[in-house]
Amino acid sequence: MPDTVLELRRVSKDFATQRAVADVSLEIPRGAFFSLLGPSGCGKTTILRMVAGFETPTAGEVWLNGQRIDALPPYQRNVNTVFQSYALFPHLTVQGNVEFGFRHKKGTDEIRRVLDVLKQVRLEMKASRKPSELSGGERQRVALARAIVLQPDVLLLDEPLSALDPQLRKQVRVELRDLQRRVGVTFLFVTHDQEEALSMSDQIAVMNGGALEQVGTPREIYARPRSRFVADFLGAMNWIDGIGVRPEAVSICQSPTKTGRKAIVTDVTYLGSFCHIAMTLEGGEAILAQVPPGSAIQAGQTVCFTWNPEDEVRC
Amino acid sequence: MRLRNPFLAPTALLMAITMLAPLAIIVVYSLLTRGAYGGVELPWTIENFTRLWDPVYGIIFLRSFWIAAVATALCLVLGFPLAMFIARSGSRKNLYLSLVILPFWTSFLIRTYAWMFLLRDTGILNSALQALHIIREPLPLLYNDGAVILGLVYGFLPFMVLPLYATLERLDASLLEAAADLGARPWDTLVRVTLPLCAPGIRAGAILVFVPCLGTYLTSDLLGGSKTVLIGNLVQNQFTASRDWPFGAALSLALMAIAMVLLLAARRRGEEML
After folding, report:
1. Which CATH number do you get for residue B151?
2. Residues in chain B whose Cβ is within 8 Å of chain A
3. Which pLDDT score, from 0 to 100, does residue B186 have?
4. CA–CA separation, A26 and A206 (whole Å)
């Protein structure tokens, strides 16, 4: 049985007018990169805030390392947060921010750890800068350094990449994943970006309307979604007679075949490394296929399409 | 800019007439000789300024600074929790803010007289305490430094609360969460995050309270009695009882110069922090 570092037991959270989190139970294995994935307002950030201590559950329990923590104030929980806006202290330098958590216990060991972490996030040369003098990516790394230097049992990350530009975001994904493996800290990562969750996580919990939809590895969630919501949220999905087929699983032949289904091509979108072919069935349903970019298929053409039954999704 | 200039003209004119012109008159007066029945006469002299070095006036200056500093500190200590409370009271903010500025609806003079009625030997406070047999002789509440400081704190507290409120209101709540997240207890967060980030508001409030307190004459005259002579009263005396306008002018210039030096020092310190 894997070692669980953080556990939520039937946690609910009600705000004045709505139920933000509804009866969620989760076990997060030690050392895992665990993502909470869902659309905005699905309750994933509320879960993070309940673990951090900024919100108190209306019902249920939160356990960290075998200790019940849901009634403890944030400063007594050994978890740290990377905030969406980073929340760096503007009056302190990079070093001052990273040292903030060591206020009352700054010995040689702590000083060495601060330098070590600054080096790990490649900010040792900017230790005496103020946050206002840093780029977005650098600020994000300060926020990360400030949290991991305290060696938390769980590091909570609230959409930490959403403020970065798309180019940088992909690069930071890899860096973040590497850092997590190197440091070995458990990550609880909140995101609404399925690609982000798929590419970085060991496990993903998909949430919708305050409730858990499915928990599993990225492959399980993508290939074996247990609900239509999960299937649709993780990527484009064609629904044909109640069966789900991903666009990349659809293959198109330009001549009619026995097993294939007929469709009319309505649009061809060239996307560099592949093409999106939009089609309609006779009944009017829209079908999307993803094919290699060299394809000669053109709009208006009647084609046949098939898929491998192994790639079917039933839920 | 081009559009704004014509609209600024009336203000600029008003400032020139009501600020610069009197200032010029004060400068000229301070360099002239006193007239026998008030007013000023030739010849030109700098004697009014050399007289300022007399220790008698030095003591009055120091006393004024001390009282203004104590009043400012008390305003800060009382005003900060109040500003914090208002900034965090959500939809009731506007109600509380209007309560803070409510006293401005009546004249400062009348409100100061009201304090006299409260504090004097036969005043409400002493009468009540005597009626309840808590004290036999009336407490000396009026005509001392304490009464002056009380009057100043009462009068200038809103000038501290409003700028503090403005900075606290803009304070990013996620910074306070971040501090708690990094292990800081509420008091730690106040000292290490809230106070440093409110420095501009504290500075603005301190200046708005300290400068008028330094030049006060009404409060010290009414609540301090003859025992408490501050720079403001000294200046007032020169233009009334003493009939020494040139020296009064020199005194007020000295007061202005000191206040200006303090303001510049506070500003430089503010720039360093940014």
Report:
1. 1.10.3720.10
2. 172, 174-175, 177-185, 188, 192-193, 196-197, 199, 273
3. 93
4. 11
Domains of chain A: 4-229 (3.40.50.300), 238-311 (2.40.50.140)
| Structural domain for B247, as ranges | 55-266
Cβ of B181 and A80 within 8 Å?
yes
CB A73 within 8 A of CB A235: no
Tokens of B187: 């008091």
Q: Give ipTM to 2 decimals.
A: 0.85
What digits encode the pLDDT tens for the residues B113-171? 888 888 888 888 878 888 888 888 777 778 888 888 998 999 999 999 999 999 999 99
Choose among B57, B21, B27: nearest CA to B44: B27
Residues B246, B29 contacting (CB under 8 angstroms): yes
Locate the chain A residue with the closest alpha carbon to B173.
A87
Count of A–B CB contacts within 8 Å?
Answer: 59
What does the pLDDT average to over B178-206? 93
The whole-model pTM stands at 0.81
B137 within a domain of the structure (yes/no): yes
pLDDT digits (tens, 9 = 90+) for B160-179: 999 999 999 999 999 999 99
Spatial separation of the C-alpha atoms in residues B49 and B31, rounded to whole Å: 8
To the nearest whole Å, the CA of A88 is away from the closest chain B CA by 7
Partner-chain residue, chosen from A83, A91, A150, that has the shortest CB–CB distance to B178: A83
- Is residue B198 assigned to a domain? yes
Residue A250 to chain B, least CA–CA distance (Å)? 47
- Split into its structural domains, chain B has a count of 1
